[in-house]
Amino acid sequence: MNHEDVKKQLLHLPEVQHEYNALKVQYDIKREIIKLRIEQGLSQKELANKINSKQSAISRLESGDYNPSLEFLNKVATALGKELHISFL
User: At 88, phi and psi to the nearest 5?
Assistant: First the structure.
C-alpha cells in the first residue's frame, strides 16, 4: 500500500477529512512558496536575505512550524516576484 492509498482510506473518516480541510490552506501556501523558491534557484538563505530575515524563518515557514503574518507573506511574495492576494470564496 502506498501513500496515496493510505491517504484515500483515511480521508473517508469524517474527523480526518475535517482536519485535512482545516490545514489545506496552510499546506497550499507552503507548497507554493517552496515551488517558487526552487524554480527561481534560490536557497532558503538567499530568499531570507532578500527580505532581510534569517534562513531559520524561511525554514519554519516552509515546514509549517510557523504561522506567518500577512506582512511576512507579502515580503516573501514580493521577493519571489509575485503579488499576495487573499480572497474569501
Answer: -110, 125
Amino acid at 4: E
All domains of the chain in start order, with CATH: 3-79 (1.10.260.40)
Whether the predicted model's global pTM rises above the 0.90 cut: no
pLDDT for 24-74, tens place per residue?
888 899 999 999 999 999 999 999 999 999 999 999 999 977 889 999 999
- The x, y and z cell numbers of residue 43, run together, are 536557497
d(CA 50, CA 47) in angstroms, rounded, equals 5
Chain centre to alpha carbon of residue 43: 15
22-36 tens-digit pLDDT:
888 888 999 999 999
Residues in the chain: 89
The residue whose grid cell reads 473518516 is 13
